[in-house]
Amino acid sequence: MTEKGDIIPPNQSGPLVDLRDLPTDALRALIDRLNKKSQTATRIFEGEYEIKIEDLKRLLDQIRQEFAGSTKLNVSASATILTSKNRKFDFSTWEEFETFDTSQPENTRSLTVGLIADVLRGEKNDFERFEVEVSIQNNPAQFGIQIGPLGVRPVSGFEVPPAPIVAQVKFPDYILGKNIISTIESWEQALPRRATDFRKRVQKRSHMIRAATVFSTTAAALAACFIIYNFRMEQLSSAFSLPSMLFLGALVTYCLHSTGSFFASQIERNIDRQRPHYNVILTAGDQRKEEQRKIENSKYRMRAIYFALASSAQVLVSLFAEYLARKLF
Which pLDDT value is given to residue 10? Predict the structure, then answer.
């Protein structure tokens, strides 16, 4: 028996059953079954992966094994590459896939693998069609919109899926459909991941880091004014009137608050500007972009650290205002 459009072995192609030999009633039953509404489940996986072609081959093989107890009428699989210039490359065999020019300078936006299985299942040999599509995307935030755990539109509505990995399964049988979904989830859990947990946690809380920095620098400025006033209360009272002292205190607080706010905004900006790595690298352009991204992320990370140290120094100077005042005066 052979399988059509084989992105998975064997190499022979063609339908398993010649539909022209079937009686009219059988063909009508098949058409009715094809038109029967099936269930659709979509899974979105958030993470930063290091996906290889071997991982996708393993996934298709695992999905194919879910139909081991069924009579396969037709099983076809495919792979599609979408590049940064919106060029699409469709493949039906791994031999075709290996002819893809990986030396080109274009970047890979997404890599999608799909499988359609027409099978006979159950005691009555009911005809059922299962469709599976798994899309891996680089730079998902640039090409899609996501609200909560689901995309705004189904995977097919986007040229590029709106998440690092999007899996969509259409199935008429609930149990087998859930088994396929579980297979995809287990495959995703086994994928190698990049060590980016700390960066992602910090980016999710960058607004809190900014607010905490502004609060700490402003509070330290107020504390500095209070400490200096207590230390030189007699001298300041004789030299300045109460309105003048209030004005000077407000001016110092405003200047230190503005400086702290600038440091805080730079910390948040440089944290948020760090970008995720590529989930799949196919071309020379991907490799070059990945190296550039590593350098840029390192630069933004060091800038964030520098501004954090500057804000910390400002807080320390404010808190040790009394000691500095003793040294200066």
Answer: 43
What pTM does this model have?
0.70
Q: Which H, E and C letters describe the chain, residue by residue?
A: CCCCCCCCCCCCCCCCCCHHHCCHHHHHHHHHHHHCCCEEEEEEECCCECECHHHHHHHHHHHHHCCCCCEEEEEEEEEEEEECCCCEEEECCHHHHCCCCCCCCCCEEEEEEEEEEEEEECCCCEEEEEEEEEEEECCHHHHCCEECCEECCCHHHCCCCCCCEEEEEEECCHHHHHHHHHHHHHHHHHCCECCCHHHHHHHHCHHHHHHHHHHHHHHHHHHHHHHHHHHCHHHHHHHCCHHHHHHHHHHHHHHHHHHHHHHHHHHHHHHHCCCCCCCECCCHHHHHHHHHHHHHHHHHHHHHHHHHHHHHHHHHHHHCHHHHHHHHC
| Domain limits, the chain | 19-193, 198-328
The predicted pLDDT at position 232 comes to 63
How far apart are alpha carbons 252 and 305 in whole angstroms?
25
- Answer with the residue of higher pLDDT: 328 or 109: 109
Structure confidence by residue, pLDDT tens digits, 19-76: 666 677 666 666 666 666 678 888 999 888 999 999 999 999 999 999 888 888 888 8
Hey, how many other C-beta atoms are within 10 angstroms of the C-beta on 118? 24
Distance CA 285, CA 292 (A): 11
Per residue in 168-190, pLDDT (tens digit) is 999 888 888 899 999 999 999 99
Distance CA 258, CA 274 (A): 25
Cα(120)–Cα(19) distance, integer angstroms: 14
